[in-house]
């Protein structure tokens, strides 16, 4: 579904609410030429108490942390961005939505150095269902190992959610789709499993969960952290600082992706190798069920993870 088909008409940009079509930048914007921007992806869920932003505080904290390596000064406080986001959702009468804050170096000069380029900040929100499809949440997806490797933390700050770095994600994801797969899995420079183009990955073996550690060139995913917490509270053992070889994927009992967009999505095949019995496994289903129970507020637990609109 394209944006033109969605019931959204407003974007918050540099302190003002503007019409969707008027949220524009100059063609010589530094961020457009050099990828010098940072962003977040968060969700707002429909609940009995009204729309609720999920782990918004953690998303904003990562947003500001991502700006640090680029010496990017965001001119708005966390409280101001929160107020703008809540009003944006209210103005568009959204009961649930995906939220995209972005900050980038704007137009001034076009040298590689962003010196004297202003920092632009914007927030958009729009309805967005299951990122990889509603069917994927139940039946899982097929993925391929990408020929593109994940950039290393010695090359770029992998703990920052940087716009330019997602060229790597674009290449991996489109390669997978051209070959008939729903998504890619990306290996790091050592040849171990890193993550998906926009997701962290979990492996299940003998009833225990494994996920690559931060040293494996992954983004410190907020949904990843959520799943670790929920799984441990359900009684599962979680190994969250491990290396996973490519070969271990083929012998896994279960695999699944996590992410703000992907939520908890089972993986049924890797490079045409069937994982487990080729369906959503029992551990994945248990964790996924608990995740949606929490985010849809069908339980009073973890209420401190939510900011109500």
UniProtKB/TrEMBL annotation:
Pathway: Amino-acid biosynthesis; L-leucine biosynthesis; L-leucine from 3-methyl-2-oxobutanoate: step 4/4; Amino-acid biosynthesis; L-isoleucine biosynthesis; L-isoleucine from 2-oxobutanoate: step 4/4; Amino-acid biosynthesis; L-valine biosynthesis; L-valine from pyruvate: step 4/4
Gene transcribed to yield this protein: ilvE
The protein's name in its UniProt record: Branched-chain-amino-acid aminotransferase
GO process terms (BP): isoleucine biosynthetic process; L-leucine biosynthetic process; L-valine biosynthetic process
Catalytic reaction list: L-isoleucine + 2-oxoglutarate = (S)-3-methyl-2-oxopentanoate + L-glutamate; L-leucine + 2-oxoglutarate = 4-methyl-2-oxopentanoate + L-glutamate; L-valine + 2-oxoglutarate = 3-methyl-2-oxobutanoate + L-glutamate
Family named by the database record: Belongs to the class-IV pyridoxal-phosphate-dependent aminotransferase family.
Broadest EC class assigned to this enzyme: transferase
Protein's organism: Natrialba asiatica (strain ATCC 700177 / DSM 12278 / JCM 9576 / FERM P-10747 / NBRC 102637 / 172P1)
UniProt entry keywords in alphabetical sequence: Amino-acid biosynthesis, Aminotransferase, Branched-chain amino acid biosynthesis, Pyridoxal phosphate, Transferase
InterPro entries noted in UniProt: Aminotrans_IV, Aminotransferase-like, B_amino_transI, BCAT-like_C, BCAT-like_N, BCAT_family, Class-IV_PLP-Dep_Aminotrnsfr
Essential cofactor(s): pyridoxal 5'-phosphate
């Amino acid at each position: 579904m394209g944006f033109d088909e969605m019931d959204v008409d407003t974007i918050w940009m540099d302190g003002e609410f503007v019409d969707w079509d008027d949220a524009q930048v100059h063609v010589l914007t530094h961020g457009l030429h050099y990828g010098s921007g940072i962003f977040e992806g968060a969700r707002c869920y429909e609940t009995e108490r009204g729309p609720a932003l999920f782990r918004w505080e953690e998303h904003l904290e990562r947003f500001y942390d991502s700006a640090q390596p680029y010496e990017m000064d965001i001119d708005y406080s966390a409280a101001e961005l929160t107020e703008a986001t809540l009003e944006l959702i209210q103005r568009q009468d959204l009961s649930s939505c995906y939220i995209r804050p972005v900050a980038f170096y704007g137009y001034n000069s076009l040298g590689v150095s962003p010196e004297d380029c202003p920092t632009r900040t914007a927030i958009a929100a729009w309805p967005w269902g299951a990122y990889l499809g509603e069917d994927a949440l139940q039946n899982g997806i097929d993925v391929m190992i990408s020929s593109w490797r994940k950039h290393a933390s010695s090359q770029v700050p992998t703990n920052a959610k940087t716009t330019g770095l997602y060229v790597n994600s674009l290449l991996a994801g489109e390669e997978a789709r051209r070959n008939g797969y729903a998504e890619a899995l990306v290996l790091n420079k050592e040849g171990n499993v890193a993550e998906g183009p926009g997701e962290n990955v979990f492996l299940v073996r003998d009833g225990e969960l494994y996920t690559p550690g931060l040293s494996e060139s992954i983004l410190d995913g907020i949904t990843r952290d959520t799943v670790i917490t929920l799984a441990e509270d359900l009684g599962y053992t979680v190994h969250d600082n491990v290396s996973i070889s490519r070969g271990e994927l083929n012998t896994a009992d279960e695999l699944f992706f996590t992410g703000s967009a992907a939520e908890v999505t089972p993986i049924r095949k890797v490079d045409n190798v069937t994982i487990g019995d080729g369906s959503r496994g029992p551990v994945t289903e248990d964790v996924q069920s608990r995740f949606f129970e929490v985010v849809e507020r069908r339980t009073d637990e973890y209420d401190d993870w939510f900011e109500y609109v």
